Amino acid sequence: MQYQVVFKQFHGSIPVKEERWEPDRGENEQWKDLEQFPCRIQCIRSDEGNEQRFLIRTEMIHRLEEPVSISLEFIKEGWTGREYVFMPAAVYDGNRMKSKRLSYPPYHVGKTEGGWDRVITDIPHLNYKGETSSIQLRSGDMSTPAMGYFQEDRKEGVLILANHMVHGRYTGFTVTDNVERAVFGVSCPAVREEKKYFFGELPDGSGFYPTCEAPSDDVGMILLEGERLEMEIRYYQFPADNLNQYFMKFNELREEMETGQEFCDIPFSKAYDAVKDKYNKMNFTEEGYFRVGTENDVPPSFWQAGWVGGGMNTYSFLLEDKGLARSQSVSSLKFITKHLQRDNGWYIPMYANGQSYGDDFLNENSPVLLVRKDADLLYFLLKQAFYLKRHGEMTEEMQCSIACQADAFVRFFKKNGQLGQFINMQQETLLQGDTASAAIICAALALAYEYFQKPEYLETAEALGDLYWEDYLKKGMMNGGPGEICQAPDSESAFGFLESCVQLYETTGKEKWLQASREAFELAVTWVMSYDFHLPERSTAAKMRAHTRGTIFANAQNKHSAPGICTLSGNSMLKLYRYTGDQKYLNWMSRISHALAQFVSLQERPVDTLAGRALPAGYFNERVQTSDWEGKETIGEFLYGSNWPEVSMLLTYVEIPGIYLDLDRKVLQCSDHVNAQIIKEDEREILLQISNPTRYNAVVTLMVDHSRNPASMGHLYYEDMRKIEICAGMERNVIIEK
What we know:
This protein is α+β, with helices and mostly antiparallel strands. 26% of the residues lie in helices and 26% in strands.
């Protein structure tokens, strides 16, 4: 492994002078006087097993009049271009796909002679034809400031980690693919040379685009006489038989340099009640269903199947509410199954004010469906069907509607051999194949089998599970979940497949699905932020004292983190813990759910936006901006609007125990914004002390579990959890019988 220190001088973002130094191991800890700059550099390297630590120190002899950056570059010779290049939550397999300049929202379907024409928009990527290319990112573009690669032929992985901020400036991460060699560089500060990724209205008036051709507004730093700088980088080279082992290693190492702080802010119940009240007042339509947004002049703000909440937002109210929200949920389910389903079983993807629309972006009566939407919807309709059946409220009409949709998926798979991304509902043909967009369908069909006892549902679920596992998960590319990213990598399909694998194991008991669940988790969680990003001090998020650990990047195109999983609670990780006893699943579940509630807007604590007005109470905005993809002024800021994290919050309250106590393994996990500890225990009972350090009264859910009980949890355990009321600033003791 070769490495070199690079000192660059810039005019704006354009490098005008540079000096490179390749330290010899014999020069370790010696100072190097640069020839072109009044600066001394020291490169201290220490080795321990598979890890090399580098400490770069600089000291200015005289003041520099022009801005500069300092980088440590690692050079990989014998590069083939087939290596799996990884930058968490930003680059998967180098994002090596055909890139097209498409305005937003992009829609691309079609085939070429070589098969399905998988496309990304103009997002950071390496060239898929093997030509020289590079990716330049800032630390805030990723879930962890890291990068690396996996070489399958050598069964070897490399990871490079650094701090996201050094000397008060965000760090930069660059990968350059030069056909026979590759260079991985970490710099302070981040200076994307000449061009950068930007998403928005282009200054030339051509439209609203994602583009890598925007002029870079990065600048170097001025260093004063005597000023010193230190930058630490860690380089790991390790054996890995496959990508799963590579991701496992990354998830083991990713908090070695930075992590997040523990905090309590807004209890789950407070956030949940705010969203529920908002739904009751603003989301129920005159036609009798819950819409997904609140904008009256925007059709996608009315009905959308699955994805951003349609047919999912009703589930929590059925389980938790006894009044208006519950009755409106029942009304919504009746409307969906009676008015929004085609004769052949598919549900309409978008609907507003009597008009249906396709997923090819507001074409009226279009038969185009983002198949993930109906997969989400089927899964949640079945979860609700089990509840209604348990309580004697399931209607024959609704049951037939759900079965009809399950039949449509089975029929389509038998005909086409996959589900693809976009389909023609009328002709039941593929418009765009080869994505993992509908990966959650395996969970839906497994539930359909449990409900209807129809073997072909489970047969299809397992066949699709094998397909997604072999063709996508094992290749480290879950993609195409959102409907407006073309076929780019995304977290939504990854978490959807995790849900599927866990459900398949719960339904079948087959060990293969437990192994698939473990592997799906390792990939999915790479999209979750592992540390607290240093937000600009004057930003809205900084003033809120927001913590970014546990927020999740949605996809490689829309470069912001977000509150929660789109659109799940993440309780698959709770189930995975129960099946394995591995506490890391509980830890990540807790981080994701705990981060979510802090971003709700409350009447007494409104969230300000770039629009100059605060979000109404109960609103969540999907932005957690650590990247400057929409401009540097947007870092730490929020847009105005009602978004899907509201649904994630609803699901979190009814599916993620605020406090989880496993009596078998003696594990206590607190996910809600309260603290809990065991203060006394004997053979018969446990005395649990719960304290609420927030300024809001809370109703905390408590699950007391015997995790080694072979019985599955199912989906309706909210009714079995204890509800503990605890006032703001108070503590309470709870007796738990063993």
